[in-house]
Amino acid sequence: MIRVILPAHLRALARVNGEVSFEITGEITQRAVLDALESRYPMLRGTIRDHVTQRRRPYVRFFACEKDLSHQRPDAPLPQAVADGMEPFLVVGAMSGG
Amino acid sequence: MSSVRLLVGTRKGAFVLTSDGKRTEWKIEGPHFGGWEIYHMKGSAANPNRIYASQSTSWFGQLIQRSDDGGATWEPVGNEFVYDGEPGTHTWYDGTPHPWEFARVWHLEPSLHDPDLLYAGVEDAALFRSSDGGRNWEELSALRKHPSGPSWQPGAGGMCLHTILLDPRDPARIYGAISAAGVFRSDDAGASWRPINRGLRSSSIPDEDAEVGHCVHRIAMHPKHPDTLYMQKHWDVMRSDDGGESWSEVSGNLPTDFGFPIDVHAHEPQTIYVVPITSDSQHFPPDARLRVYRSRTGGNEWEALTNGLPQEHCYVNVLRDAMAVDKLDSCGVYFGTTGGQVYASSDSGDHWTAIARDFPAVLSVEAQTLP
């Protein structure tokens, strides 16, 4: 079971409270998690990564296990604790007010 | 009894204000999409309960929301705005080439006849069309691919296509206004475009009367006189009586001819409204007095409308899409400010009342007149 924590704006958009969780088969990568997330919540398409290039939006960061994974390759394996569901994968709006 | 619904887009969400035909008591609902910038909302003339909203932030990008119950509930629809082909470059502020990059939707313009057909004016400047209620978008790319496109430069707010006017006589005739390129017209439903800026003069470009490069802030049309267009340019208020083929200045006795919005009275095609702003470097009203100026002669002769508006210490701005009129008799006029006030007049501008005082900065106001 993969656990994902979304920022408040995207929780509101996806109409979810708290973290979301789902099963993924195959290797647990950033791309696999985001593909599964967008498949379950299609309104999130384009809000975390670009529709066409699939690149992370500039003001979005990815954290897990107290590490910034934003600049890891999309197909690199995520930490085992994320794959095991012990730790969540965090989608974070870059630090600022607004 | 008729009623009015105002669609107010702000820096931090969308508000829907409703009143009966007297327009003295207003019910405020919102914010919808709290915390997001709502550049524009507009209802379909063919089905007024169908409303579209442009929702964005720098963090999470662009969304289009759609309501089918007059703004009570909303559903996100399509947000994939992809330029047709390799978009190439336009000209940056410093004159160097800069890649065309989608930033946001500034303006949504539903068809006058089909609730599922609408146009979106975007930054960096381009026109998109959806024929399925906003789910899918295609660029009408002949506009962006006009030979002058690589020379287009952004205004201070970005290089935006901010105004879309549809000719009620002819669905194939579309006007688009871009800051800072100018006005373009298509007579074949967007398949081809040509600039229509003859008569404009802008001292901030090397060739003052160039065919393209003018910072047009907004254009407006009365539906019963679609060949007459009014324009608030960066500086200068302009008028065309030939569908934009030529323009003449009608700034007349305005205290300053810099400003953003311009609109036309619902029943008097020669009665127009502007909100003069001090200058391009001081975006607040001259003498710190908020005054709407009305011309009943289609320009040149202007009168200040001040009753109910702050006449001292006022330093707000009124943005280009933040003025609207209703169709009741007498015509209602509405505008929102960057200070978060929404002012309403139910008598064509003679008297004004603040119907909201503490909204976030207002980006857009649209009025719907309901049966």
Keywords:
heterodimer; A: 98 residues; alpha+beta; Ubiquitin-like (UB roll); 5-stranded mixed beta sheet; 3 helices; 5 strands; 22% helix; 19% strand; B: 371 residues; mainly beta; Methylamine Dehydrogenase, Chain H; 4-stranded antiparallel beta sheet; 30 strands; 0% helix
Q: Please, could you describe this protein's structure?
A:
The complex is a heterodimer of chains A (98) and B (371). The longest helix of chain A is centred in the middle third of the chain and has 11 residues. Chain A is α+β, with helices and mostly antiparallel strands. Chain A contains three helices and five strands. The mean pLDDT of chain A is 95. In chain A, a hairpin with a 2-residue loop joins strand 3 and strand 4. Chain B is built from no helices and 30 strands. The radius of gyration of chain B is 19 Å and the shape is globular. The relative contact order of chain B is 0.13.
